[in-house]
Every structure is written in structure tokens, then in C-alpha cells.
Amino acid sequence: MSSSSSSSSTDTKKGTWSKEEDEILKAYVEKHGTRNWNEVSKNAGLIRCGKSCRLRWYNHLQPDVKKGPFSEEEKSKVFEFYIKYGEFKWSKLAHELPGRSDNDIKNFWNARKRKLEKLGLSPFPDNMEPDHKLNSSQQVEDSQEDEFNIPQLKFRKYPSIFDEINEKLLDVPNMFYNNVGSTSTLIDRGSSIIGTSHIHIPIALPSPCSYLPLPSPMMLDENGKKPISLEDDFEANLDDFMDLIDFSNLEDDVEAGSRLFDNDDIYNSNLHDKI
DNA sequence: AACGCAGCCAACCGCCAAAGA
DNA sequence: TTCTTTGGCGGTTGGCTGCGT
């Protein structure tokens, strides 16, 4: 941040930490611990707010903090986390990467994402295929195999949900499938991942996941109090979960999709947008 | 050598939830 | 039960640095 070490109009200092401040904070925390950061700041004689002390400690001063470029193993863990949970939770991720702070991981990811997306590339590495993306040779094979076939869904965890959704798509008349791998993630109300899939869907149709109501109505336990996590007892809860899926728009979507395929210009522009 | 640009990264900000009074 | 304080988190900012021209 500011290199001016500027003081705010109040009584706390902002900006880059000096070596002296680091030494003071480190010595105090190693001796007294981190029970109350405002106390740490006050008792150590620092003119920094408690929050600032906490950040400095966790990001830079605590033992074992790791600096420098991310190793391949660390990068893999970051990517796997996203695939597993469908989103990034920096603090959770930091627990899986010993020595790395949430801020460090966030910076790594944001920098990578910005850089690669600028080039029109995915921030995920190619070697995550075929689990998470379809590679080009696989796309060719699949397109020959599937051109007039049903959408092919590949599942990692709970295939039955997508099987059910897939059945609803069987009636799609004479569709041309885009054969571009698309990853979708189903997340229940408690943010548990209940399924991740690679889907060949008709290009003009939304992902099966889009038929899920958002946010999903909450399913409660028998006492009506505790939300049920599908991951707790997936098979037992599957029927209830399927009841929540709203297919009322499917017919309209199919019709709209068919019209698109009747119009080459619209189809081509749609295809370009999707790839 | 000077300048401009882009990427990196430390640090701040604001929001929210939990804990405590 | 309500209010206040504190800690934690994610998003964002902007200074620093290295590289190219």
C-alpha cells in the first residue's frame, strides 16, 4: 500500500510495516499469544489497529510462513479445491496449503486468472483433463459418437441426479450437440457439493443445473429444524431433492433451441459465444 | 538513461457473524 | 434480549519492481 507510512487522521498508523514494528509484534505474540488483537496492539506499544496486527502476523510473521512462487503441488491443490467445492474459500484453502496465507493464495489465483483470461485462456491447466475438461481429441471422438445420440453425461460423484435430468432431455428432437465439455456443479443449500459433471448438452439449451431453483428450497429434518445436507445421506434424500427440480421451462427452452438451429446466423453467433 | 507499462503483492476497507457485556 | 466489540473473510487498491522501448 502506501509507502508513505501515513498516519490516519486518528491515532493509528497505516502503510508498510517497518522492521522495528515487525520485531515488536513478533516478540509480543511469541511471548503472550494472540488472544485479543487490540490488546496485542496496545500492550506491545504499536500504533497499529488490532486488525492490522493480525494481518501482519498471519501473512508474514508467524513461523513457517511460506513465500515465493507456488509449487506444482500447491497449484494442483488450488485447482482441485475449486473442482471439489465449486468456488474458492481462501481461508479453507489456506488450511490445505500449510505456510500459505489466504491472502497469498488469493493473490496467486487473481494474478493467474487475470493473466490467462486476458489471453482468452482458462486459468485451469490442461493436465486437469479429462477429469475436468474434455480435450480436443476426445471432443472429436465424442462428436462422431454422439451427434444424433442422447446427451452424454459423465459424473464424478452422484450420477443419479444427472441421470434423472438427462432423461428429461431425451425428448429433444433432432438436436445437434455441441460436444464442448461443460462443467456444472450442483450445490445444496448448505453449500455441500453433491455432484460435478461433464455434460454434452444441446448448445441452445441451458445446463441441466439451470433447472434447479435458486436458491434451493431448504429441506429440513424430521423436526423441521435442521437443514438436511444431501451429502449426509445422499440416497435417502435423492427423491426429495428431485422434487425440488423445476422442469417447467424445459419445453419452452427446447422450442427456442430448435428455432435457433433453423437459423444459421443466430446459431453461429450463439456457437461463437459459447466456445 | 529515462520513461511507460504491466504484473505482483502488501495492506486496507467494508461487511458479517460470533462472542461478550 | 439487545447492543457493542472483536475477529475473520473476501474484494479491492495502489506502491513497488522489473522489463521493454
From TrEMBL:
Pfam families: Myb_DNA-binding (PF00249). GO terms for cellular component: nucleus. Residues 127-146 are annotated as: Disordered. It is found in: Nucleus. One of its GO terms (molecular function) is DNA binding. Keywords: DNA-binding, Nucleus, Repeat, Transcription, Transcription regulation. InterPro entries: Homeodomain-like_sf, Myb_dom, SANT/Myb. Residues 9-65, 66-117 form the HTH myb-type domain. This is Myb DNA-binding domain protein.
